């Protein structure tokens, strides 16, 4: 868990922010195509269609998203969330780690090793 919390989230450059407001943001990101479908379409001489998906973040998600800057660790984001929203540190750690995991599964972010 310590090693995961030291990782630094990195935004996918293909993700776009659309409909940003003070408390929410909608992310638009390319949908990952299944390899078999991609091969199927290219076999018939067509480029696979680019599809985008949207994800609307709530206030806490938007706050965490704004802290992802390729420098701040997952633990650093959890600490800021805890301070800003007066959450118990463990509650913030769990919330941020689940949020980061979900963004990673969707290909919205990647993780790199943090400083040791």
Automatic annotation (TrEMBL):
<dbReference type="Pfam" id="PF05402">
    <property type="entry name" value="PqqD"/>
</dbReference>
<dbReference type="InterPro" id="IPR041881">
    <property type="entry name" value="PqqD_sf"/>
</dbReference>
<protein>
    <submittedName>
        <fullName>Coenzyme PQQ synthesis protein D (PqqD)</fullName>
    </submittedName>
</protein>
<dbReference type="InterPro" id="IPR008792">
    <property type="entry name" value="PQQD"/>
</dbReference>
């Amino acid at each position: 868990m310590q090693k995961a919390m030291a990782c630094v989230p990195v935004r996918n450059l293909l993700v776009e922010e659309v409909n940003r407001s003070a408390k929410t943001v909608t992310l638009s990101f390319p949908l990952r195509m299944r390899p078999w479908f991609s091969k199927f379409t290219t076999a018939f001489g067509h480029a696979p269609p680019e599809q985008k998906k949207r994800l609307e973040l709530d206030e806490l998600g938007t706050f965490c998203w704004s802290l992802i800057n390729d420098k701040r660790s997952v633990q650093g984001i959890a600490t800021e969330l805890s301070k800003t929203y007066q959450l118990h540190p463990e509650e913030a750690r769990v919330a941020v780690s689940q949020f980061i995991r979900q963004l990673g599964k969707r290909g919205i972010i990647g993780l790199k090793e943090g400083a040791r």
